[in-house]
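To fix ideas, we now present one chain and its tokenised fold:
***
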Amino acid sequence: MAWIRTLRAADADPELAGLLAAHADRRTGEVDGILAVHTLGTEGLRAHLALYASAMRGTPGLPKVDRELVALVVSRLNGCHY
């Protein structure tokens, strides 16, 4: 995996810190690596979140539970831990 510099929420500007807080794991307070790689560019993070929202809500004919299941299977096939 490539190394990409990231910012901690404590070092982020208020806008980025708010986005990270809104998408942090409720148990650990940390964001997934796929979101952390966007911490050097707030617009990139916003675009990633919009793409995810579109993919997960943009198919009204497919129930949410099925979309989540597809995401789980694809992540598992790709060796992704989350």
About this structure: The CA atoms of residues 6 and 36 lie 6 Å apart. The two ends are 15 Å apart (CA to CA). Residues 9-77 form one domain. The chain has a mean pLDDT of 87.
